[in-house]
Amino acid sequence: MLLIVDTHALVWYLSASRRLSPKAKKILEDPHHSLIFPSIVLAEIKYLYSKCRIEVSFGEIRDIIEKDEKCFIYPLDETILDYLPEKLDIHDAIICATALALENALGEEVRVITKDEEVKRSSLVKVIW
Known about the structure:
Layout: E1 2-5, H1 7-14, H2 22-29, E2 34-38, H3 39-50, H4 58-67, E3 71-74, H5 78-83, H6 90-106, E4 110-113, H7 117-122, E5 126-128
Parallel strand pairs: 1-2, 1-4, 2-3, 4-5
Helix pairs in contact: 3-4
């Protein structure tokens, strides 16, 4: 199973926040799953850090992702645009489109690790929280 990781889930995991659900924490730590980080997640992290809204820097997070063999950054490309749902805000839409595109291309189950209620209500993707 592939896991798409939303911004807050990644930040909360790396900062050991209690806001991260036990289920999300457990699956993020499972070495048997690949973790996919849409480029929008890293862009949000860079922005949030520059505004002093998070303590974990973009550079630290990028280093962690690049050193972990189960972690991958997925770019915003034309394929993602083809799957972009119109009923979500742009950040959530890109995350969901990444999941949908990978699921279709690989024929493998893909889930999104997120607390986001709009993503859950959309029923576009399977959510873990």
